[in-house]
Structure formats: structure tokens, C-alpha cells
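task queued by scheduler; priority normal; single chain, no ligands, no partner chains; default sampling; output format set to C-alpha cells
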Amino acid sequence: MLGGISIWQLLIVLGIVILIFGTKKLRTLGSDLGGAVKGFKKAVDDEKNAAPEKLEKQEADATFDQKAEKSTADAAEKKDKA
């Protein structure tokens, strides 16, 4: 029992919903909902797969920034000596 709702009550509600909306409309609604869930799962998986790549890119950018700062500091030091 689901909180006092029997299987017969669920079947009656299902029958009423089918009478109101029709099977074609419910089938369309179900396929649309399934497509949305599939798209959401794909986006989540793509994000999980892209996370390591983003981390590598951030590390590479940080290394490049450190080298650029060192190069700028070296150039400023040489200018001060001259």
C-alpha cells in the first residue's frame, strides 16, 4: 500500500487521465519527457568528462601566466639596470 492508496484507485485515476487526455497526447508527453531526461543526462555526462580537461587548461594557463610575469619582471629589472 502506498500511503493508503490501493492499486485499484491508481488504475481508476489512470483510466480517467486516459479518458481526459487520450493515449496519443500521453504518448507524446511521455516521449517529450524522456527526451528531456536523456538530454539532461547527456549534458551532465559531458560536464563530467570536460571537468578534467578544464583543470588541465587552467593549470596550463596558470603556468603561462607565471612565465609571463617572470618575463615581465626580468625585462623591468634589465631596464632598471640600464
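post-processing summary
- The chain has one domain: 7-81.
- The radius of gyration is 30 Å.
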